[in-house]
Amino acid sequence: MCGIAGLIHRGKSSNVGRELTDMLQSLKHRGPDSTGFALYGNPKSGEYVLRFKVAEQEDMRHGFQIHHQVIERRAEVDRRLDELGVRRISEDAATEYAFRYLVSFDGDMKKLADYVEDVEGAEILSIGNALELVKDLGDASVVSDQYGLAEFGGTHAIGHTRMATESDVDIRSAHPYWAYPFNDISVVHNGQLTNYWGFRREMERRGHRFMSNCDSELIAVYLADCMERGEDLEDAMRRSVDELDGVFTYVVATADKLGMAKDVMAAKPMVLYESDDFVALASEEVAIRSIFPHEIDTYDPYEGEVMVWQS
Amino acid sequence: MAELDQAHESYELGMHTEQLSGRTQQVFFSAEESDNLVYPWAPEVDFEKSGEIDAQSLSQQEVNAEIRRLMIEGVGTITVRNPGAKHSLGVGILSRLNLHFDGSLGYFGCGLLDGPNVTVAGRVGWSCAENMMAGTVLIEKNGGSTFGAAIRGGDLVCKGDVGSRTGIDQKGGTIIVGGRAGAFSGFMMQRGRMMILGDAGKNLGDSMYDGTIYVGGKIADLGVDAVEGEMTDLDRDWLIRKLGQYGLEAPNGAQNMTKIVSGKQLWNYDNLEPTEKKLVL
């Protein structure tokens, strides 16, 4: 089933970490397997936040060797970052296997991503000026506490609570998906894509990489591919409604925008609240009510609808 | 109210003795037979007696249980404050009651109703009033998708816009939408009437068996086997009377609404059921 949510403050920052945690926690019944956050903070010129992991949570429960392996894998990632001229400004480890580096880098981002992900077990969750992508097993409160997201200040955020249906219960298959190798683009999705494999093969032929077998990852890669070829976000989303087959509602975020798209059958839910300075959207109104307990006017976007908001 | 368990309730309804035999199972209630209109265990409520529930800190099960408890006490007019878009509120009410929600409902609100008059001051989520048998549900703001799915009777009215698949599998009753309705509204509709005062989305009335859809605005396109029907004086009079009950009017006048019916080319209407064939042969 899965639950998706997003919010954007227009022209100001807020505690989007706490707000999204509350929204996703109220959607826990739609998917308790994993929870993911894509949070957009205040970007700093020339600096990037690199979020990556070197093992799955599940791996940490299998044998003693894995504890040594994650140390070795992280050291290898550090060595490769140094080799490419990436300057590490600060390093944090929320868990034994997932890390947050603040870095400065002016080289080829795709080369950087490919080289890091070539390390066994390594996956870049996100690279961004503004974006920080966190996902792990458990409900929103568990993941938010684990990664210290409750005080995250920023302009907008999207998130996902996952009910695993067609791929494994692991971080690799959890949403949001970063639109490799583009900075600051992330996607969450509720639905099923029926032309996933055909499009995946086409994207792979064009040089895009997939880390999971989850159909939702295709939307992120698809949008990245369209934007790489010069389309803006809204045009890429409109194209996706025509070209992606199946039932879906997805939410996408960039450094300064939030967007949503619904398939032509409108088979997956989305409720929207919009005021002059704030927009919130979610699979269920209860998620919006978790941050707006008073009466508000909401509505459902229609079939085939694409909407984009600026922060 | 007699305290009956579920098995007794179904026996009281004759569900264990009913003879199922094709089309002959159709039974039309007679207004003269008042016993047919009330469930045997329905609580005697007094509309003059009112009660209030604050749903703020209650789960949906607790809210529904509280409604039932007040009804057993004879309370006939209940107001639920702070419903907070919680799911499945006000469901399974099978007797007369005036029920008012002072806010919005989540998914599956007011499902499986048979008799009460419900008003909702806010919005409703997906599948509002699903399978309603009788009564009225009046919503002041917008509604989600599958609004009035499979209703068999009663009036379901939303003064705002509703989502896709409105009245999917509708088997009777009346659905009124004050604004716009999404794609596939009236999908596989079988009986009853639907009025959409605003625009209707794509595939309106797709694969409908029977029933009638009236549209006041633009129709994006018609679904398979949905065709335009001829508006009669009877249609117009009925539309004006029905809309008037809820203080509504067609924006361009009832006489200018478009009537959509089934072309009856898709399904095999003349085929007999297997058991009927045996009887004929």
Count of the separate structural domains of chain B: 1
Overall structural class of chain A, as computed from helix and strand content, comes to alpha+beta
Q: Helix count of chain B?
A: 4
Radius of gyration of chain B: 20 Å
Classify the helix fraction of chain A into a percent range: 25-40%
The global form of chain B is globular
Amount of helix of chain B = 10-25%
- Our count of helices of chain A gives 8
CATH class of chain B: Mainly Beta
> Averaging pLDDT over every residue of chain B, what do you get?
89
Strand order of the largest sheet of chain B: 1-2-3-4-5-6-7-8-9-11-10
Q: What is the CATH architecture annotation of chain B?
A: 3 Solenoid
Give the strand order of the largest sheet of chain A, numbering strands 1, 2, ... along the chain: 7-2-8-1-14-13
CATH superfamily of chain B: Glutamate synthase, alpha subunit, C-terminal domain
Could you characterize the architecture of this molecule?
The complex is a heterodimer of chains A (311) and B (281). With 311 residues, chain A is of the alpha+beta class. Chain A folds into two domains: 3-43 and 139-310, Aminohydrolase, N-terminal nucleophile (Ntn) domain (Glutamine Phosphoribosylpyrophosphate, subunit 1, domain 1), CATH 3.60.20; 44-128, Histidine kinase CheA-like, P2 response regulator-binding domain (Alpha-Beta Plaits). Chain A has helices at 16-25, 65-83, 109-117, 140-147, 196-205, 215-228, 233-243, 285-289, and strands at 3-9, 34-40, 47-53, 87-93, 98-104, 123-128, 131-137, 156-162, 177-178, 186-193, 246-253, 257-262, 271-274, 278-282, 306-310. Chain A has a six-stranded antiparallel beta sheet with strand order 7-2-8-1-14-13. In chain A, β9 and β10 (186-193) form a beta hairpin. The model of chain A has no long low-confidence stretch (mean pLDDT 93). With 281 residues, chain B is of the alpha/beta class. Chain B has one domain (45-280): Pectate Lyase C-like (3 Solenoid). Chain B has four helices and eleven strands, in the order αβαβββββββββαβα. Chain B has helices at 6-12, 60-72, 233-245, 274-280; strands at residues 46-54, 75-81, 98-102, 114-120, 134-139, 155-158, 171-177, 191-196, 212-215, 226-229, 258-262. Chain B has an eleven-stranded mixed beta sheet, covered by helices on one side. In chain B, β1, α2 and β2 form a beta-alpha-beta unit. The longest helix of chain B is centred in the first third of the chain and has 13 residues, at 60-72.
